[in-house]
Amino acid sequence: MRISTNQFYNLNTRNLTGLQSDTNKTLIELSSGKRVNTAKDDPVGAIMIENLNQQNHQLGQYKANINLANNRLSQQEARLAEYEKLQMSSRDKLLQGNDGALSESDRTALALDIREEMEAVLALANNQDESGNYLFAGFQTGTKPFVPDANGNITFIGDDGRRTASIADGISVNVSESGDRLFMKSPNGSGDYRADYANATMTEKFFVESAQITDPDGHSAGPMNIRFVDDGSGNVNVTVLDGNGGVLQPPVPFDPSVPLQFNGMSLEMTGEPAIGDSVRIDAQAEVDIFSTLQRAAELLEQPEGINAPHAQAEYAQLIDDMGAAQIHASVVRAETGNTLRSLDTFRDQHENMELVSSSAKATLEDLDYAKAITQFEKQSLALNTVSQTFGKVNSLSLFNYI
Amino acid sequence: MADMMSIARSGILAAQQRLGATSNNIANVGTEGYNRQVVEQGSTASLRQGNHFVGTGTYVADIKRVYNEFAQRELSLATSQLSQSSTSYSKLSELDQIFSVVGKSVPNSLNTLFENVNNLSDMPTDLAVRENLLTSADQLAKAFNSINTELSNQLNMQNKQIDGVVERVNAITAELAAINGELQKVGGQDLQLLDQQDRLISELSEFVQINTIEQAHGVRSVMAGGAVMLVSGETATELGTVAGDPIPHQTRLTGTIGGQTVTLRNTELGGQLQGLFDYRDNELTQAKQQLELMAVGVADAFNQAQANGLDLEGNPGENLFTDINDPSLVSRRTAPFAGNQSAVSVDVRIDDTMALSGGSYTLSFERGGFALIDQHGDSVALTADPQDPTRLISAQGFSLHIDPNQMAQVGDKWQLTPTPGVANGMQMLLTDPRQVAAAGNEGVFGPGDNSNAVAMAQLANSKLMNQGDMTLTDIYQNVTTTVGGKARAAEVAMQSADAVKGQAEARVASESGVNLDEEAADMMRFQQAYQASARIMTVAKETFDTLFNSVR
After folding, report:
1. For residue range B332-353, what is the model confidence (pLDDT) as tens digits?
2. Residues 146-175 of A with CB under 8 A from B
3. Which A-chain residues 221-250 have CB contacts (< 8 A) with chain B?
4. Residue span of the signal peptide, if any (chain B) (predicted)?
5. Is the pLDDT of residue B188 over 70?
6. Rounded CA gap, A110 and B201, in Å?
7. Lower CB density within 10 Å: C or N end of chain B?
8. What is the per-residue pLDDT across A305-332, written as a single tens digit (0 to 9) for each?
């Protein structure tokens, strides 16, 4: 084929620039370490890379949320541990007070101790976080949640809102605990109903151990009176009447080992009631820690102490409440602990996932250096060879010989 | 023997001419578009002497260009194709860069905003956290503004470039028309003029794909894209651009000849001009539409989330970003065609961002009422709102509000684009960090409530767009990868067009190009021929001298 001189030059220039541009591309790849620098370098790979980037970003966000949740829950956990400690020492004080041999001054001193414990619990319940938000106020974080009312009873003026954090797709955890649940709603020690010993007729000691609703459908709620009556031959019978005097449980001989079953509930009593004694029970499933402690102090502060049967029974009821409150707090603490554990699990899961997607991304995006360097060597060799031969052939011209 | 002298003379003259042609070839070895010239030499008519004929010498019959019309046409076609595909490639690479590098600030600031929303759900009452959220929302709005500006600049640049190309095409066609006139005047083949004509045609074929029609004396008429007559004899059509209808910045091509101007279709031009029109009206427009769609999605998602919650004062959250149905935006969604008989105003309001396509629609008033077709030509159903007689609802996420006081005329048309202007007009509206609605609106309000912030943070993963197929960020990724894919395809097309052009060029060059070695050989050959003819003269002289001497 006939080749024109220009064509010869053009062809060589074209080859040289082609090789140069290929070499340049390899150099860019080598310097960035990436095979895909913009979407055009590998459109299909770019879709995957973008998706993996976004996924990693989301995982990073979840990990950040987990860290924040972890901080919150660790703070809360520390407070719950503190609460348990206070409960334990309060219960010790209560048990110390449950001793008929104590002098009035001993009792007054104990009552003072118990009031101090209550103040400590109150201070804990009104704890604030680093930015001054009340921890146990629900969503009313700007308002002190536990305050005494006109009668000196502690009331809760927050709400039961609980903050949540998203820690994985579709999974969120509570990062705050409601003070209402924790402090105001520990279960009543005797179950669903509670004896009103303060207003009871008690010539002898007896105690409502438990009053539980066993059959909610067969139960009609309302205050009830437990009466101990003469069976006609001087033995103690027990009967239960409703608020209007209707008989719920006809008289039966009193036997502490046999719980009474009536009105869809089970009533368990101990002691040795006397004929003519009576006590009212009212529906109350929950008690608050403050009134428990406050009432215990009040009872101890009475001049006659807690020797009267009704005072003794009420004091025993408070000790039961205290025990129930301890179990309640440890349940809440265990929940927090479980959430903290699940945070760790999810963090591990996210980290593993990140590793997987990072390595998937690397295979798509990262340069195979060995391959790229080999290619670069090949390209520079070709570039060299073409330049040299071009130079040589170029110097051959017929004009040099004439 | 006088013959010998005149034969030698003709030989010398011919050799001189050939040396001249060779020299001209050598001199023009570097001239672009030069076709090598060869001398056609013939022997002069023989002389009858008695019973036989004797030769009388030589003469130069013609000086011709070595020119292959077919190869030239092929080269011109290949030039147009390469020019079109390399225009597409360079434009798409630029767009690829805009989305892959510059525009990354959009998804990045969206991610930062979500980070701050997550921080807010940890500390819903913290004013610094709230302030950070507002700052990142502001940055997101600005990121949208700036990539939108970038794309608008691209659009303006295309229009300027189109105007520039049109101007150059006009200059070339005017010159070609003048050359045609010149050729007719000389009535023949002026090789230099023909080469000039070739050069112009080959430059012209970079801008548009052309077809030439050969006429007498080398006169050539030129058509663009097989439909538009650019040069006809001595007259050239003057191209121009006018504002688009109904979208002004989508300028259209016009042709003016003899005082009459017609609008030309810009789909069959080929060459760079086609590449520019295609990029402007397809890839760039689509990328911009998708960006707008994302901006609509982002603004609407956050505004709705705000409305679902309560701010730090317990008031319902206000819009974080400009409302997607803000009057200033609604007014940009409808463009009436120039030929409309009525001035009915049609407002497009977005009802459901998830159902939006991002594309544009054509609304027309027919005898049966309003009819809507999408940009693919498919008709879109419109249903009347039983509560509001002025409202027509489409299932594509928007509804039309038509001014009831004016009557539309049959044939009236409007172009509707439900999404434009949002990326450009997007602003962060909140001035006080307390206005961020972190609290939920169920139950009693409490400043420590983070439930709405948690819900807002989940927008990051929610498939809010494209019929529930895509997250907000997915839209951006989709544009990036679509543009990247098109840029890659254009690169492949450009490479093959380049190879085709290389072959066509080689073919032309191998026939018409100058080869210096060949010319060197010719030079020696004709130098020898000259010397030999000169020698004939001396021999003839010597022969005469011998004769003279013998008779003296």
Report:
1. 899 999 889 988 889 999 999 9
2. 158-159, 161, 163-166, 169, 172, 175
3. none
4. none
5. no
6. 112
7. C
8. 888 899 999 999 999 999 999 999 999 9
The DSSP line for B387-451 is S-TTEEEETTSEEEEE-TTS---TT-EEEE-SSTTHHHH--B---SGGGS--EESSSS--TT--H
Task: Provide CATH code, domain A24-188+288-367.
Answer: 1.20.1330.10
Domain of residue B351: give its range: 333-419
**Contact residues, B window 489-528, toward A, CB-based 8 Å cutoff:** 491, 502, 505-506, 509-518, 520-521, 523-524
For residue B520, give the nearest of A7, A50, A399 by CB distance. A399
Average pLDDT value for residue range A167-183: 91
Q: Tell whether B498 is covered by a domain.
A: yes
pTM comes to 0.83
Question: What are B42's strand-pairing partners?
Answer: B59
B301 and B372 in one domain? no
**pLDDT of B1 over the 80 cut:** no
Q: Is the pLDDT of residue B189 over 80?
A: no
CB B273 within 8 A of CB B241: no
How far is residue A241's CA from residue A225's CA, in Å, rounded to a whole number?
5
pLDDT in tens, A43-54: 888 888 888 988
Given an 8 Å threshold on Cβ–Cβ distance, is B448 in contact with A141?
A: yes
Quick one: B65 exposed, middle or buried, by C-beta within 10 A (0-12, 13-18, 19+)?
middle
CB of A354 less than 8 A from some CB of B: no
Same domain, B41 and B99: no
Taking the C-alpha atoms of residue A46 and residue A224, their distance in angstroms, rounded to an integer, is 75
Whole-number average pLDDT of chain A: 91
Q: What is the pLDDT of residues B266-310, one digit of tens each?
A: 888 899 999 999 999 999 999 999 999 999 999 999 999 999 999
CB B273 within 8 A of CB B169: yes
| B106 in a structural domain | yes
Domain-ending residue, one of B391, B419, B447? B419
In the listed set B356, B388, B419, which residue is the last one of a domain according to the structure? Answer: B419
Neighbours of A135 (CB within 10 A): 20
Region of A196 please: left (phi>0), alpha (psi -120 to 50) or beta: beta
Q: Is the pLDDT of residue B2 over 60?
A: no
**Is B343 in the same domain as B466?**
no
Domain tally, chain B: 3
Domain extents in chain A: 24-188+288-367, 195-284
A172 with B443: Cβ contact below 8 A: no
Q: Same domain for B532 and B482?
A: no
- B462 falls within a domain: yes
Same domain, B161 and B48: no
Same domain? B345 vs B453: no
| Phi/psi at A146 (5° precision) | -110, 110
If asked whether residues B362 and B311 sit together in one domain, one would say: no
The pair phi, psi for residue A251, each rounded to 5°, is -55, 135
Q: Of A2, A64, A134, which is closest to B510 when you measure between CB atoms?
A: A2
Give chain B's largest Cα–Cα span.
147
Chain A residue at shortest CA distance from B89: A40
Poorest-pLDDT segment among A37-51, A151-165, B533-547: A37-51
Tokens of residue A166, six digits = 């998203």
Q: Does A382 touch chain B (CB under 8 A)?
A: no
Judge: B480–A39 Cβ closer than 8 Å, yes or no: yes
Q: Read out DSSP for B203-258?
A: HHHHHS-EEEEE-GGG-EEEEETTTEEEEETTEEPEEEEE--SSSTTS-EEEEEET
Closest Cα in chain A, distance from residue B21 (Å):
16
Question: What are A241-294's pLDDT values in tens digits?
Answer: 998 888 999 999 999 999 999 999 999 999 999 999 999 999 999 999 999 999
Do B231 and B154 fall within a single domain?
A: yes
Is B322 inside a domain boundary?
Answer: no
ipTM for this prediction: 0.78
